Amino acid sequence: QDVINRIAAGEVIQRPANALKELMENSLDAKSTNIVITVKNGGLKLLQIQDNGTGIRKDDFEIVCERFTTSKLQEFEDLHKVCTYGFRGEALASISHVAHLTITSKTNKDVCAYQAEYSDGKLKAPPKPLAGNQGTIIAVEDLFYNMNVRRHALRSPAEEYQKISDVVSKYAVHNANVGFTLKKHGCNCDVKTPINSSHKENIRMIYGNSIAQHLVDMNLSNDTLQFKCKGYITSVNYSVKKFQFLLFINNRLVDSQSLRKCIDAVYQTYLPKNGHPFIYLSLDLNPNNVDVNVHPTKHEVHFLNENQIVEIITNTLEGKLLESSSS
Ligand code: ADP
Ligand code: MG
């Protein structure tokens, strides 16, 4: 049974960066305003996330790592309206099957924090009290220690760290009201954004001044198709080597091949060969029109009226680029 659980868990948690994405989403669901991430050896030795959110009650320590335990979904019907990130109750359970997991947490109702270690979905011992601030610290150590093949299939720690940094950067830009810090253990911060910043300021801090200086606003909405789009795109006077596409739909980091391709195609008529844009778009769609990710590793998203919405966005974008090229 443990082996089966481990295989299932390995499908949910494929590499350090996607474990971290799940953990960041939990911190955001818990209404944190400050999130600090510490990484050792590309996240394989240690992946730690500390937040100042609502915390986990002592009584809930017993169940948070059981599969399909979630505090976020009341009825199956809710699945279409979920506004929290988590709803499957799979992340912590999965992590506990493929790593050494330690949770330390304090709610505002408790006088002290509690700490517990988990393995294979179960508490190893009753939570023990200790001093601490409100919020949660999740430490994931020795990821895939019990899955040799998976561990060897991963890239180098440097590449895994790159993927971590990429996903943290995107969440940090999008969640401008939340402060994010990412650091390698014992080193200076690689990503740092303050609480209550702006999207543009965060782009500047994370992706650099030159991108930030070439940003054009991208705001549009359409009542008939029930969507709103906000964000920034780089003007035609600027390009990056690799297409940077930060796409959030209803606050979830997703990918849309159709949108990605159409946007890059528009830029190709303006940018030098091998030049690409930086794009940050936050799309709000009627939740009933979006196919929610039913699997944690599926980022490709589809939505109702996709072709029309993509067309309207690309047309607006083209207009903006024309404006920016003539000014
Ligand atoms: P889900 O997010 O789908 O509910 P998870 O396995 O990711 O499932 O988390 C299980 C439960 O643990 C959550 O529903 C939540 O109650 C609790 N939890 C996890 N992380 C945090 C956190 N950082 N702060 C507060 N509660 C948390
Ligand atoms: Mg979750």
TrEMBL record:
It is found in: Nucleus. Residues 203-322 form the DNA mismatch repair protein S5 domain. Belongs to the DNA mismatch repair MutL/HexB family. This is DNA mismatch repair protein S5 domain-containing protein. The lineage of its organism: Eukaryota, Metazoa, Ecdysozoa, Arthropoda, Hexapoda.
